[in-house]
């Protein structure tokens, strides 16, 4: 298992204290002040068990997403919801749209399901070809995709998701969509698959990326599929969401100032960083709609490039272990202008 | 599923704001100040993913328990470790020593294992009869017990655990011991099953009870069984312990002042509360070695008694849904002198 976040701790244990972590895709604005204040004010809450039904938290998530709280399930990070969903499915085989986040495969395998991969092609800029997918799906009962996709940054439009989920519905198949990064998409509220209200869709979300707090562990699922929610509730472990994560959801989803500031940053920076990277020779940059960018190295291996960048005090994600990517690919987070400039400089130096 | 902690939220939603919760067994001293300070100082840690290997945390737990950190596995509350252990076992059937905490059965069933119960008898004061257990064990490959046991408060001596685990080892069977409450036992360091270093033993611990923070979600397992640890690591979800829980473990296990204060409180209060309860007519009180007391009502049903106590603004645990207990049993937490006095008064009033 190659976990992002793991490398940075290993590097620190090896003495690399001040490394700039471009391997993990976290909002550089940092945790909202509103959350810190809420923790201070409500600190003694940890002396009680969390509400096992998480009514206040699910209500806040429901309001944020304009969906009844009955359709919301919360978990200890998106990973708990992912593993629980896969465990709760009564299917034999799933198809993962790849290259993508490796945990889908692991969650399916831990749950005893078979896995096939559907290949997004580099020559199609890693866009999803629905017709080809439907041709290849055969005995797979579930399609798993990440939207926008990690690590390609590609976003599938609501129209295409509508078409795909409708076709899957006819075939009595399900669609699992990881929308962990969707809030980095402009006007995402009008583009989320939740709007389709289709029963065969399950949506995974996280507070990790957008609200800059991977340490707090809060994820949730949205679905109109009552049956799967029932099964998931029956199989889940009690009190899996800790008190601070509960508080984070209630407070931060209402912090409009932070949300607006983040949107202003990402809309500007994703364009600027792409344009600047695109000027560098010997690399190919893939246009991203999320807060990270996939880069193909044209004259260097990813592991060598990563090592050279560590010497420059920058950690990038070597993507060679993603299914269907080879040792030419790396992924960069998008951070603030000053840091992005530093990364551009160092990449220019290293790939020259 | 009947979860303690759940009732209190339901009662609050129904308008019972100031109810005294004697249904959940949490250290009344509250969270240590040292932890609150550590959270403030390290707040920005939540902007990073936790260390997926949790080296610092496992080291702290190892030092606290005088066991190498390689023998420590950490989880999102004791529940994650419990469910993960049961999922990782390659067995068909387990025997649960009961009455006891209901989640063992649920964890085993979610993992697809069969369950049998071994009955602790009221006429034996719910003590464990090892000879009878070994006679009944037959095709069960695992014995599950809680020590000290919830809700009976009975503690099994290290000598008896040694004898039991040795016999089970001969039969190639395992022993799972939940020691969530062991720190409330006087000189527990000399009485924990960890001292036996036997490979067929797995010990579950929690920071919930002793350190008064069920909201923080931190549990751990101790074992010399390398194989089960390997399987558990392979099946676990990444980053399941959040940043604050990680911090709590590192800080609080070293807070000797808090530990000593808690020991002084529980040693005095468990004796006093038992003596006072014992003076009340129409109830039978079971001597407890933990921070809660099992009570048998001699002229009242548990659900009626519970309702009457809620009217007196005290919530007790109705134990009628514990396997092998009937509707005569309730459980009381032990809190500070002032509150314990109030509870004594109200019980006297209600059972008169």
Explain the overall architecture:
Two copies of one chain form a homodimer. Chain A is α/β, with parallel strands linked by helices and 352 residues long. Chain A folds into two domains: 6-31 and 256-351, Alpha-Beta Complex (Aspartate Aminotransferase, domain 1), CATH 3.90.1150.10; 33-252, Type I PLP-dependent aspartate aminotransferase-like (Major domain) (Aspartate Aminotransferase, domain 2, 3-Layer(aba) Sandwich). Helices cover 39% and strands 16% of the residues of chain A. Chain A has twelve helices and 13 strands. Chain A has helices at residues 6-13, 33-41, 55-65, 77-88, 103-110, 130-136, 158-170, 226-235, 243-252, 256-278, 302-311, 337-351, and strands spanning 20-21, 72-75, 93-98, 114-119, 142-146, 174-178, 201-206, 219-223, 283-285, 292-297, 314-315, 317-318, 329-333. In chain A, strand 9 (283-285) and strand 10 (292-297) form a beta hairpin. In chain A, helix 2 packs across helix 9, helix 4 crosses helix 5 (103-110) and helix 10 packs parallel to helix 12. The longest helix of chain A has 23 residues, at 256-278. Chain A is globular. The mean pLDDT of chain A is 94.
